[in-house]
Amino acid sequence: MELSDSMYSYRYEYDYAKVIGHCKNCGCNIHEGDEAYNFFGMYICDDCLLDFKIYS
Ligand SMILES: [Zn+2]
Fold this sequence. Notes:
Number of helices: 2
Oligomer: single chain
Structural class: alpha+beta
Strand content: 25-35%
Bound molecules: zinc ion
Number of domains: 1
């Protein structure tokens, strides 16, 4: 049995993930299954969430 990494790469999976919206802050694509948030209809990605934190 032979397992090839190239046959199951993350990138391959990522390309097939459905884009459900764009981050309101940075404009990046938000894919189905991503760690992301929806504030009153605006998508915010996980990276930008800290930008909305009042105290850090
Ligand atoms: Zn963002």
